[in-house]
Write a structure and sequence with these properties.
The complex is a heterodimer of chains A (365) and B (658). Chain A is α+β, with helices and mostly antiparallel strands and 365 residues long. Helices cover 18% and strands 44% of the residues of chain A. The radius of gyration of chain B is 29 Å and the shape is globular. The chains are: A alpha+beta (365), B alpha+beta (658).
């Protein structure tokens, strides 16, 4: 096995597939990256929950395959000069990596026994622009639960129905939903582990190019830019999120997103020391007072809003509000309150590209 | 088809023996308890071959009437109760009437007994439950019980016996418990001709601890004294430095019966929390007196477990008793020599092996039970000697000293000590007589009297004053602070000290803040057991005050709609149940529901680290804050904050004194 490729591309491939390599495993082969040279060069990392395959353009002199320890292979290539990398497997899996004036010879492992990515039988398939999926993941991933007792909530639900592609995350206190339209008429439901979704988010690029998602019974395959990612699915029933989102509101306001974020951030300066104090919103007469008080002192700030409905005073964990507000790019947003102890819903002025819901803190002492 | 028959008596006795008689130690326990029930003031247990070969239990109790001896070996024969109702007011150790019959059915037993009134004693030999012979014999008052060849007729059981030394160890443990339970009884264990335990029987628990655990332990215990809610608790709790890696040095007695009880152990350990390192268990001898009506001892055939009708009350009482003992005591680990400095007027007793107790500081305001004992001691000591008829000599040694020479300050504070000494007259027949001090000599009391009326009688307050008034020498290794006070050098770990301050501050803040509730997106349903459901109903108002919004959802299910804001990251079903249990035991402030680790973490993170230079102003501030803490002695992980080095120790190191 022998090939030449660019250091830059090889390193990109390594760092991508490394996300799917176990950092510590009982079997050395599981700490390895599978490298195969054919027409192109293909790198594979697989930790069973997540598997990534990445292709690199290369000038292949002779075909073959090898497994190299992920950490050492990655570290070597990262430090190589920006030039052509010469890669050759000699006898006894000894592998030569040469670039510029540097020469490495490291011990590899037989590729036999490496867990290759499973073939996904094409059951259901959907395509969506990479940048669109990337944006939706960004808008929802923060609300994933970290509670391992409720495993299903440590993932995001991908729901495709009636030409709508929806991602939903929720934990005990808030919910985040993002939506996009697609052309295909398929129906599909899958809960992808948050950790994997995060990796997928990083690999995707800000491009119109489509990512193709294929679903089997317990795995999902994401294909894009010469990269195949296989994630396991979380089993179980995701919560019926639609049931939680209220439709009747006592109070609705339109507010400048940036100003809202800034005022909450300022209010939480007072409470940031510990998480014992909420931030209070008092809405009346087309203005919103954002206030907080803690042992160290108080803060108060007035914001102009457009308001419909009744006056309201409501408390929130500032972190939950900020998590939602910070992923919004819209200049203005619509914030609706069902009651002072009911959920608050944040949406764009027009449509429902995203719906964020945060549960309040009861302020009575 | 196999016919069903009623088992004959000896078979049924052998089966029943299995419940009570597991090993030699069980025999020792049953026999010693019988001796105690018979009013013995001295019990000697001699064993060979780990008690498997022979056990001999000699007491000076009431003895058994000649006519009753044979009957005593019948099953359910007892002199201790008459009707089941008597159980409610039980004050004897035994009551089932099973022990003798059981022992006799699995071994060869010889009993020699004589009552006060009887002219001659009686000797009965029983083998495998059958009485072989009964004959009159000359004997002193009391009962001697000899058991030989245990399990000789039940090979299956014999096989399960452990090594002789292990079995002897079990017997040792049993007698330790009895000795601790009954400081008024002299307990002696002779194993293969060697005396292993010998307690004085002088009514003083500390003497018992001394004779069993040695002087280092006896010096490092703090008296526990509590009375309230119908529960009396006395005993001793060990300072952190004598904690152990297991619970083997915890002895809990309920109404003078050694027991294992989770509630009590939990209360004890909860009270020591943050004073002990993790995985360390306190030394403790606790005696809990509670009206027999509120405790059920008939739970377990070996009577090792009890049930309380109100567990919370017991938990709180123990917790409070231990807490106040610990918080009232100075816990600065001192080097051992400090205590040797007490000028001791040695009695003219140079060749007798001498044991000396660490003096117990006694304040006039403190009503110590030992005080009451002290008055009765002398006569008790005499009665022991009369019983055994073996006294060689005894001396009463009473020293009243107007102060701990340790430091002038303390002398000013008017401590005075009653020193007790036990003289081991080992030179003659290993008989140890102990004599406790009676009232202080009148003349000397006059001297100490006026000084002792100073109201400053709290060792912790003393330590606080000491810290505040100490001269700051400075900081070493940018990590430790050195103070000088009187004849003592105090070293303070700056990180540990600051961590303790921050811990108590954080905990207080959590308890005092407003209560907010975070509403849950998806209400959490929790399934409870019957018991937990009762707890929930009992605690529902408290839960609400803490910020929970919980409803009974019918059946054994509850639904949680909102949780306290401070539990920001959410809770699981199990967390909620844990909180229920915790609230049931504790006072119910918010700080109880926050995981301790959260508070530790906050405290640890906000505390200054080692290797940080501190200006004197900061050192003074730190010390001042430290004196305001509840427990200035150990950091939250149980490591010491302050250690003390005495001037004398330094002088010794420099060989100025030897």
């Amino acid at each position: 096995m022998k090939f030449v490729c660019s250091k830059h591309e090889l390193y990109e491939a390594i760092s991508t597939v490394q996300k799917a390599v176990m950092p510590k495993a009982t079997l050395p082969i599981l700490e390895g990256i599978y490298i195969e040279a054919d027409e192109n060069v293909r790198l594979v990392g697989n930790c069973f929950d997540l598997g990534i395959e990445f292709s690199v353009k290369a000038d292949v002199m002779s075909a073959g395959s090898i497994v190299l320890n992920s950490r050492i292979f990655g570290d070597i290539v990262r430090k190589l000069p920006e030039s052509e990398v010469f890669f050759e497997v000699k006898k006894n899996y000894n592998t030569v990596i040469e670039c510029g004036n540097s020469y490495f010879e490291i011990k590899g492992m037989s590729a036999e026994g490496f867990p290759m990515l499973p073939e996904i039988e094409e059951e259901k398939k959907v395509s969506i622009a990479q940048m669109s999926l990337k944006e939706m993941i960004k808008k929802t991933i923060y609300a994933i639960s970290t509670d391992e007792n409720r495993k299903i909530l440590t993932g995001s639900l991908i729901e495709v129905q009636d030409g709508e592609f929806t991602i939903v995350s929720l934990d005990g206190f808030r919910l985040a939903l993002a939506k996009a339209l697609i052309k295909e008429a398929v129906e599909f439901n899958a809960v992808i582990p948050g950790k994997n979704l995060n990796e997928i988010h990083k690999i995707m690029e800000q491009k119109e190019d489509e990512v193709k998602i294929t679903l089997s019974e317990n795995q999902a395959l994401f294909e894009m830019n010469g990269c195949r990612i296989i994630s396991k699915l979380l089993s179980g029933e995701f919560m019926n999120y639609k049931y939680f989102i209220p439709e009747q509101f006592e109070t609705e306001i339109t507010v400048d997103t940036r100003e809202f974020i800034n005022s909450i951030e300022r209010a939480s300066l007072i409470t940031s020391d510990d998480r014992r104090f909420p931030v209070k919103l008092m809405i009346s007469d087309d203005k919103m007072i954002v206030t907080s008080s803690a042992e160290i002192g108080i803060s108060k700030e007035e914001l102009k809003v457009e308001m419909d409905g009744l006056d309201i005073t409501i408390g929130f964990n500032p972190r939950y509000l900020l998590d939602s507000l910070k992923v919004i790019d819209d200049e203005m947003i619509r914030v609706s309150f069902s009651s002072s102890v009911g959920p608050c819903v944040i949406k764009p002025i027009e449509g429902d590209r995203f719906i964020f819901m945060v549960l309040p803190v009861r302020m009575n002492s | 088809m196999v016919k069903i028959v009623i088992l004959d008596e000896s078979t049924s006795n052998q089966i029943a023996a299995g419940e009570v008689i597991e090993r030699p130690a069980s025999i020792v326990k049953e026999m010693a308890e019988n001796s105690l029930d018979a009013g013995a003031t001295s019990i000697t247990v001699e064993i060979t071959g780990g008690g498997i070969k022979s056990i001999r239990v000699t007491d000076n109790g009431d003895g058994i009437e000649a006519d009753d001896v044979a009957m005593a070996f019948e099953r359910h024969a007892t002199s201790k109760i008459r009707r089941i109702d008597d159980l409610d007011n039980l004050s004897t150790m035994g009551f089932r009437g099973e022990a003798l019959a059981s022992i006799a059915s699995v071994s060869k037993v010889e009993v020699i007994t004589k009552t006060e009134e009887a002219k001659v004693g009686t000797k009965v030999i029983v083998e495998a439950g059958d009485i072989i012979s009964t004959e009159p014999v000359g004997a002193p008052k009391g009962t001697t019980f000899i058991v030989r060849e245990l399990f000789y007729n039940t090979p299956a059981r014999y096989k399960f016996l452990k090594k002789d030394s292990t079995e002897a160890g079990y017997i040792h443990d049993i007698l330790v418990r009895i000795a601790l339970a009954r400081p008024d009884v002299s307990i002696k264990l002779v194993n293969q001709g060697k005396t292993v335990i010998h307690t004085p029987g002088n009514h003083d628990l500390l003497s018992v601890i001394y004779s069993i655990y040695g002087k280092d332990i006896a010096r490092s215990v703090i008296p526990v004294n509590f009375s309230g809610d119908g529960i009396d608790i006395t005993g001793f709790i060990g300072r952190p430095e004598i904690s152990k890696g297991n619970r083997s040095s915890q002895s809990i007695f309920v109404n003078n019966r050694f027991i294992y009880n989770k509630i009590i152990t939990a209360a004890l350990e909860e009270a020591c929390k943050t004073r002990l390192m993790q995985k360390r268990f306190p030394f403790a001898v606790l005696k809990i007196n509670i009206s027999p009506q509120f405790v059920d001892v008939n739970v377990h055939p070996a009577k090792l477990e009890v049930r309380f009708s109100d567990e919370r009350k017991v938990f709180r009482a123990v917790h409070h008793a231990v807490m106040s003992a610990l918080s009232g005591a100075s816990l600065i680990p001192a080097d051992k020599d400090v205590f040797k400095k007490n000028a001791v007027k040695e009695e003219d007793n140079a060749d007798a092996k001498q044991m000396r107790f660490r003096s117990i500081p006694r304040m006039e305001s403190e009503a110590m039970p030992t005080e009451e004992n002290a008055s009765g001691n002398k006569s008790e000591g005499l009665s022991i000697s009369a019983d055994t008829g073996n006294v060689s000599n005894y001396k009463t040694a009473v020293h009243v000293e107007s102060g701990f020479s340790k430091s002038a300050t303390e002398a000013m504070q008017g401590l005075y000590f009653v020193k007790r000494e036990i003289y081991d007259t080992a030179s003659d027949n290993e008989i140890m007589k102990s004599i406790a001090g009676a009232a202080p000599k009148p003349g000397e009391e006059k001297n100490t009297g006026p000084v002792a009326t100073h109201d400053n009688n709290d060792p912790v307050a003393n330590d606080r004053n000491k810290l505040l008034n100490a001269h700051v020498i400075g900081q070493i290794f940018n990590s430790f602070i050195i103070l000088e006070t009187g004849d003592e050098l105090l070293l303070i770990d700056q990180h540990a000290a600051h961590e303790r301050i921050q811990y108590e501050k954080t905990k207080k803040q959590y308890s005092e803040g407003n209560i907010y509730s975070q509403v849950l997106l998806n209400p959490l349903t929790v399934n409870l057991s019957m018991l937990e459901m009762d707890m929930f109903h009992e605690l529902s108002r408290l839960l609400e005050r803490l910020g929970f919004e919980v409803e009974d959802f019918g059946g054994k299910t509850i639904i949680i709609r909102a949780i306290p804001y401070v539990l920001g990251s959410g809770i699981s079903e199990q967390d909620f149940i844990d909180i229920l249990y915790k609230l049931q035991k504790e006072t119910g402030s918010v700080s109880e529901i926050i995981p301790e680790e959260t508070i530790y973490m906050t405290a640890c993170k906000s505390a200054i680290k080692a290797n940080r230079e501190m200006p004197e102003m900061e050192i003074r501030g730190l010390i001042e804050d430290l004196t305001k803490t509840e427990n200035p002695y150990t950091c939250v992980h149980g490591r010491p904050i302050i250690i003390s080095v005495s001037r004398k120790e330094l002088e010794k190191k420099f060989k100025r004194i030897l």
